[in-house]
Amino acid sequence: MSGNRKIQILDTTLRDGEQAPGYSMNLKEKLEVARQLERLGVDVIEAGFPVSSEEDFHAVEEISKVVKRSVVAGFGRCVMEDVRRTWAAIQGAARPRLHIFIATSEIHMEYKLKMTRQEVLERIAETVAYAKSLCEDVEFSAEDATRSDRGFLLQALNTAIRAGATVVNVADTVGYITPPEMYSLVSWLKENLEAPVPISIHVHNDLGMGVANTLAAVEAGAEQVECTINGIGERAGNVALEEVAMALHTRRDHYHVETGINLRQIYRASKLLSTITGVGLPPNKPIVGANAFAHESGIHQHGMMASRQTYEILNPEEIGIYQSQMVLGKHSGRHAFAQRVEELGYLLPKEAMDKAFERFKLLAERRREITDRDIEAVLGSSAVLGVKETYSLKTFVINSGTIISATAVVCLIKDGTTEIENVARGEGPVDAAFKAIDGIVNMDTKLESWTIRTITEGGDALGEAVSKLSCNGHPITGRGLAPDAIEASIRSYVNAINKALAMGES
Ligand code: KIV
Ligand code: ZN
């Protein structure tokens, strides 16, 4: 033991992160993320906002059943019905936490809540006490705390503490505060709170000060920090877990604190999330971006060759970026593949491993060497994550060019047995192929967006396509992987269709 103070990490990827546009996940995906968060060692997994929808309620309920070590928090407003429903969703958890919030700034109280200060205090007392009667662990959050009158914020937090709150959270809801102000606020609260209840901090990144504000709060004595993987969240996002964890670890000589984060699972968590949501990362994203460990300039490369310490303060292996000397290819067997998968930090059940190996073999037939990035892409494919493949691609032929409109002939296999073929014309090859598929599956879906990017280098680079559909108002993300851009696109579309069908069945 180092004797350093322990900081609790609350991850809100599945609540604050998931509610941001473009990041919605289905139940299976949320469970996959929750399992990874537990492997990552987060202390508290905020699983969702159960009153926001039946789907969210169900997801929180299911996450509560599978998570064993981490605390599972359900989030709701300081409203009696929210408390009741949220508790109903998390009561099956091994370690449940009720997390409820109300705004304490004048702007929010006057324009949004239309409540007086006195009414807000009464509501806090009433709902926190009710939450406490149901659940031992209760977190109270003051929304827009950083724009609240300090005296009133203190009153609100003390009211929650008197009613039984076990953690009080100071939210920088609109990303407004500066690091010195944050330091001063948390220090002052620590001195003035009626009881030594842990202070949590929750920041947004609107002015790009999220990490600095979180670290300032830690220096001032905050005991819990709230964050999301890859910093996803409303507007400019929440503070990124990997950035806070690595800053606290790398500069532990300065902060003298530690977290329970298993650093080697960071890269895997980041990858899993961007795979599932179909939202990539900017290459220069700290810690997990593709260029975070790339050294292009001659001066840097020269320094790195002499000693890594010249330009690298982080070790890629520390966050689980495994650098292997052994190249996999079409002659590699299941054992070598499984070993590499494990080295990359993935723990797959047998069925998923079989599926992944099958996909790896198909890919290896078409590429000379399979890199770790290829393997990660294979592992990230939704087939491996276990989406039932009602439709699979058998063949396609496209005819297109600058002087003719595109025509696609696509043949899908339904339920592993029935072949269905369709022909369609379109604005280009992808549009024609998607229209041919529409004619086969005959579903009420709308394509919202489609993107393609290469994820490896070279002429035979692997393409990863993401199709975002909406089906009965639900956003669905499909992914497809292939060395051919059109094939990757078709696979992503078919994958999204399969997900839409699976959603209808669940
Ligand atoms: O940003 C915010 O205010 C929140 C809650 C913790 C209230 O997400
Ligand atoms: Zn938030």
Share of helix, binned: 40-55%
- Tell me which CATH architecture of the largest domain applies here: Alpha-Beta Barrel
| Count of individual domains | 3
Overall geometry comes to globular
| Strand content bin | 15-25%
**How many individual β-strands?**
16
Could you give a short account of the major beta sheet? 8 strands, parallel, barrel
- Helix count, per DSSP? 19
Radius of gyration of CA atoms, rounded to a whole number: 25 Å
Distance between the termini: 46 Å
Task: List bound small molecules.
Answer: 3-methyl-2-oxobutanoic acid, zinc ion
The CATH top-level class label of the largest domain: Alpha Beta
Uncertain segments of ≥5 residues (pLDDT<50)?
A: none
CATH topology of the largest domain: TIM Barrel
Written overview of the protein:
With about 500 residues, the chain is an alpha/beta fold. The protein has 3 domains: about 5-275, Aldolase class I (TIM Barrel), CATH 3.20.20; about 325-385; about 390-505, Alpha-isopropylmalate synthase LeuA, regulatory domain (Double Stranded RNA Binding Domain, 2-Layer Sandwich). The protein has 19 helices and 16 strands. It has helices at about 15, 25-40, 55-65, 80-90, 105-115, 115-135, 150-165, 180-190, 210-220, 240-250, 250-255, 265-275, 300-305, 335-345, 350-365, 370-380, 380-385, 430-440, 485-505, and strands at about 5, 10, 45-50, 70-75, 95-105, 140-145, 165-170, 200-205, 225, 255-260, 390-400, 405-415, 420-425, 445-455, 465-470, 475-480. It has an 8-stranded parallel β-barrel, surrounded by 8 helices. Bound molecules: 3-methyl-2-oxobutanoic acid and zinc ion (ZN).
